[in-house]
Amino acid sequence: MTDVDIHQDPLKQIHLLLAAHPSLMDAYHKLEPVILGLFDIERMSIFQRRRQHQDLVARFKTGKETKEIKVPISPLSIAGYVALSQSPLIINDPYSKDELASIHPRLKFADKFDKTSTFKTRNIICVPILDAGVLMGVMQLINKKDAAFAQSDLDQANAVAEILGRKFRYELGGTSRPFEYLVHRKLITEDQLNTLSEGSQDNRQLIQRLSSEYRVPEDELGNALSVHFQVPFIPYLPDKYHMFQSESRLNLSYLKRNFVAVLADVSENPIVLMAEPNNAGLLMEIESALGIDSYEISVSLPNIVLQYLGEAAGGGAGPGAMDEILDEISSSADELDESTDEMSDDAPAVVRLVSRVLHDAKRLNASDIHVDPEKNAPTRVRMRIDGVCRDITQVPASHHSAVIARIKIMSNLNIAEKRVPQDGKLSFRMNGQLIEVRVATIPTVAGEGVVMRILASGGALPIGKMNLSPNNYAMIETMIKKPHGILLVVGPTGSGKTTTLHAILGHINTPEKKIWTAEDPVEITQAGLQQVQVSPKIGFTFANALRAFLRADPDVILIGEMRDKETAHAGIEASLTGHLVLSTLHTNSAPETITRLLDLGLDPVNFSDACVGILAQRLVRTICPNCKEKVPATDVDKAFIKRQYGEAYFDELNLPDNFMLSKGKGCDDCGNTGYRGRTGVHELLTMTAELRALVYKEASVHEMKAQAMKDGMRTLTQDGILKVIKGDTDIAQVQIISGMS
Questions:
Q1: How many CA atoms lie within 13 A of 151 on its CB side?
Q2: Average pLDDT over residues 198-225
Q3: 327-378 pLDDT, tens per residue?
Q4: How many whole angstroms separate alpha carbon 116 and alpha carbon 109?
Q5: Which of 32, 60, 214, 402 could form a disulfide with 46 if both were Cys (CB 3.0 to 4.6 A apart)?
Q6: Is 169 strand, coil or helix?
Q7: Which one-letter DSSP state was computed for residue 495?
């Protein structure tokens, strides 16, 4: 369940939302926007009562200025007083001493949290969360927008607190032993748990038996530990958590022996992950070895802790493996003195490091890996993920040459030649799948740099998932049904041209059609296609492949790229002799493509007769679905949309005066960027009789663009705005497109 309609019996909606999640930790990120909308407030907090400390801690709250809020159960704070009295409160002005004194002479507002942030508390509703008369915690609702809290708000808040207390009695109240929560969840009976506990030496053996004998899923075991120890459960999520980098070198065997891993999230906040977070002595030892004041404590299963520490599970090592390799490399670098040679390229640590980088890149869905040398500094390893470069790790400068040599050996390049650029290819297996990588080495003043492009593997994307606008989709379908002609897909490197072409081929790939493709390299494979890898080094060019195809009875031909006049001429001839030809070109827009091809020396009459359409495209980052939220469009947004879409076409959008746009708030899933994944924006030009007449005359790009727009073409920027209104992306991404096109 994702979107909840709070206007339709909100309490019932909250019931349904909570029923879909086993724990409050899981439900909170969806529950919070519902409650904020229901009460029309800015912030909320759910404080949990900690019996052993007799205080409250805000485990769930809006805002990240303060990591952890703890208050005693006493009149020294509003939440503390409500917990003490177990009575709900409305506070109209927390800074009014008279109002607070009228409730209790010692009641104070803990304003230190306001002082440490830019946030200002104006009014509060605070209600106790009870179940069967037992205090579980306190819910605080802060800053009603443009109004004061009313009695109806207080009644509603009490009703929400009652639902929370009943549903999360165990999670907020804790359990007396680790896996008691499984009994509450009806995954095991109390007698079965007692028998297992008596027959197991420790928690680790108990977990193994619960998993193997009773098939209890990992996440349920983790939630049970979270409820018992009252700290968050972290499953194995290597994309979200990596090993914390610190000066301290905690012994790996010590960490494994005690089932402890020190992690960091995407914001580099340290987290001590433990199988038994109540082991205070162990925690003190780790705290003193790490030398850090602020960290969070989380719980996990012993096997998951070991995965983070680099022990393989299911065939893949975790991020800890990278740290282990770098530790090994660092220690060997310390042993190197200036008189010795650099480390050999076949040293096991270097071999494993290169392998780990390749596996991590595929796991993170990176398109490119950059190994960048720096003068008198460690080598940076960066990856391009969703079109943006991110620092991943560093390699000691002493091992730079060994790493480059290893990559060259894997790519069959000359390791002795370091003065000129070289191109090659390597492949590796991951989970049984063969992944191919294009490799380019480039000499720099700091040493040789390497860029590796991970080639797309697997089948074609269905055309329906290309996110074409309904108008463009209908036009493309018409074009590819034509028996002959040429269809070009244009855009810069990395704009998804090959993916689009294969989506089109997948749509027309039927037994009655013979399809030949010439590509460099063959990235996407499809059954039913005859795919050929061209090799310019031996004279097997696109133009040669095209001529060979014409003797092989084709219906459809895909030419990877129209790089030169010869290939372009051959493509036009093939389309005029009754074949459908698909190809790509590196141009910025659809109308500009026509002038580029005419500049190559193509006959305007032949080209205009052959061309059925030109699709220009770019990739833009999409808003993270996990933290996407709707916000009202500002006057600036409205002006931008109107200006960029064009006054003449603006009515097509059918926008109301006040409309909503989407934006990413930023969460752990997207590294707090607000974006995850990419989608295409398109500009589709159809060759009409009027446009053909302009091509015959070799008219200017401006004239051809004006005619194409009359014929139904919408620009990249206009298509980007459609995707903004649809909620796929935001205005910032469209500004990048409008600046490029």
A1: 0
A2: 84
A3: 555 555 444 444 333 444 445 778 888 888 888 888 888 889 999 998 888 8
A4: 14
A5: 60
A6: helix
A7: S
Q: What is the pLDDT of residue 404?
A: 93
Tokens of 311: 């022990």
Distance of CA 346 to the CA centre of its chain: 35
Nearest to 537 by CA among 425, 451, 436: 425
Contact 231, 299 (CB under 8 A): yes
The one-letter code for the residue type at 193 is: L
Residue 414 has pLDDT above 60, yes or no: yes
Cβ–Cβ under 8 Å, residues 56 and 126 = no
Within 10 Å of residue 503's Cβ, how many Cβ atoms?
A: 21
Compute the distance between CA of residue 18 and CA of residue 30 in angstroms, rounded to an integer: 9
Residues 6+ apart with CB under 8 A from 152: none
* Cα separation, 397 vs 376, whole angstroms: 7
Q: Report the alpha-carbon distance of residue 558 to residue 584 in Å, rounded.
A: 9
β-sheet with 388-395: strand ranges across: 388-395, 377-385, 366-374, 447-454, 433-444, 422-430
Dist CA 582 CA 495 (whole Å):
16
What region, left, alpha or beta, does residue 601 occupy, with left being phi > 0 and alpha being psi -120 to 50 degrees?
A: left
Q: Are 272 and 266 in contact (CB under 8 A)?
A: no
Taking Cα atoms as reference points, which of 217, 311, 216 lies closest to residue 261? 311
Closest CA to 580 of 506, 518, 502, 513: 513
The answer to whether the CB of 265 falls within 8 A of the CB of 239 is no
Q: In what order do the strands lie in the sheet with 580-585?
A: 529-533, 515-519, 556-559, 580-585, 485-490, 611-623, 675-686
As given in the structure block, the two tokens for residue 506 are: 């997948």
Coil, strand or helix at 149: coil
- 248 φ/ψ angles, rounded to the nearest 5 degrees: -70, 140
Judged by DSSP in three states, 658 sits in coil
Amino acid at 589: S
Q: Which residue has the tokens 């200002």?
A: 120
Which of 498, 575, 574, 570 has its CA nearest to residue 531? 498
For residues 634-651, give the mean pLDDT: 88
Tokens of 716: 């990249």
* 123 phi and psi angles, rounded to 5 deg: -150, 160
- Alpha carbon of 576 to those of 30, 86, 337, 571, 668: distances in Å? 57, 84, 69, 9, 54
Spatial contact of 678 and 386, defined as CB atoms under 8 Å apart: yes
Q: CA 683, CA 352: separation in Å to the nearest integer?
A: 45
Q: What is the Cα 401 distance to its own chain's centre?
A: 33
Whose structure tokens read 């620092």?
391
| Rg, the chain, Cα only | 31
Contact 627, 665 (CB under 8 A): yes
pLDDT in tens, 28-80: 888 888 899 899 999 898 888 765 456 777 777 776 655 567 787 778 889 98
Distance CA 225, CA 174 (A): 10
Mean pLDDT on 166-189:
77
Query: Which tokens in the block code for residue 47?
Result: 């404080």
Q: What are 76-127's pLDDT values in tens digits?
A: 889 988 887 888 999 999 999 999 999 888 888 877 777 777 788 899 999 9
SS3 596: helix
Per 3-state DSSP, the chain is made up of helix, strand and coil in percentages (nearest 5) of 40, 25, 35
> Going along 179-277, which residue ranges are E strands?
242-243, 260-264, 270-274
Look up residue 229 and give its amino acid: F
Residue 226 confidence class, pLDDT cut points 50, 70, 90? confident
Instruction: Provide the residue type at 609 as one letter.
Output: D
Model confidence over 517-560: pLDDT tens digits? Answer: 998 877 777 888 898 988 887 888 888 888 889 888 889 999 98
Q: What is the DSSP string of 80-146?
A: HHHHHHT--EEES-TT-HHHHHHH-TT----THHHHTSS-----EEEEEEEETTEEEEEEEEEEETT
